Amino acid sequence: MASQIRDSTRNSLASGRVSAILQLTQARPINALHLNNDWSTSIIPLDQYQEKLQERRREWEASQPVQFEDRREIEHLTRVLQERERELQEERREKEQVRNRLQQQLQEIDQQLQEAQQQGQERERQVQDLQRQLQHIQQQLQETEREVQEGREREQGLQQQLQESQDRERSLEQQLRERDRQERESSWVVDRNDIRMTERILGRGGWGEVRVARFHGLEAAAKVLHETIISEYNLSLFSREMNIASKIRHPNLLQFIGATTEGNPIILTELMPTSL
């Protein structure tokens, strides 16, 4: 019974068809011939198992506040920039209203000036006064336009800073994902040069060939995946399955040793002394 469980689990892990984890709970070693009443078994769905792994990862990330300090700083800066941008937009609307009002006044004064000129020399003094008012309003209009232009330039500068902050945030997120991937793989990745393949073939299948190999002086079973099935999608599945296999420990399962990531991937497990 134990051999069947081990063989079924090993084949499921190797073929990528794992849908659940079999959990055996016992304080004593397994009897190879029968199971007594002290044993209890439970099936843990694979998605629940993955959720537990993700929950542990979130707990780990929460316990590392220093790694997210830059992100919090960026979020704070982004909020400040967005608030300042809203203030500048409101200021620009107010200045545009002032400019429109001054333009309207300018049109009214210009109309009055034309009427005064038609009335003759007796209103020359009024014309001069109106001209001075016109010049003053024109200066105010130019100053307002200059302030509006400066506001636009400040707005463009803030937008550029916001874009740079967003680019930095994306870069930090990518670095965090890459560091997380490296940390996950570092627990099971082995050097291909440490593996010495022999001519002894244990079996062949649709995914690869299993040979006896030597790893740091010990014999192990090495499964070399076929080159024809290597793709970006299959490699991502391979990495995920190796992460799962590296965390599984049970006396009825073949002990997972490690795997390579360069070239054709190689999976190392313990070598059984006898065949199933």
From TrEMBL:
It comes from the Eukaryota. PROSITE patterns: PROTEIN_KINASE_ATP, PROTEIN_KINASE_DOM. Residues 196-276 form the Protein kinase domain. The keyword Disulfide bond does not apply. ATP binds at residue 223. Pfam families: PK_Tyr_Ser-Thr. Transmembrane segments: none annotated. Residues 143-156, 165-179 have a biased composition (Basic and acidic residues). One of its GO terms (molecular function) is ATP binding. InterPro entries: Kinase-like_dom_sf, Prot_kinase_dom, Protein_kinase_ATP_BS, Ser-Thr/Tyr_kinase_cat_dom, Ser/Thr_Kinases-Pseudokinases. One of its GO terms (biological process) is necroptotic signaling pathway. PANTHER family: MIXED LINEAGE KINASE DOMAIN-LIKE PROTEIN (PTHR44329:SF298), SERINE/THREONINE-PROTEIN KINASE TNNI3K-RELATED (PTHR44329). This is Protein kinase domain-containing protein. It comes from Amphimedon queenslandica.
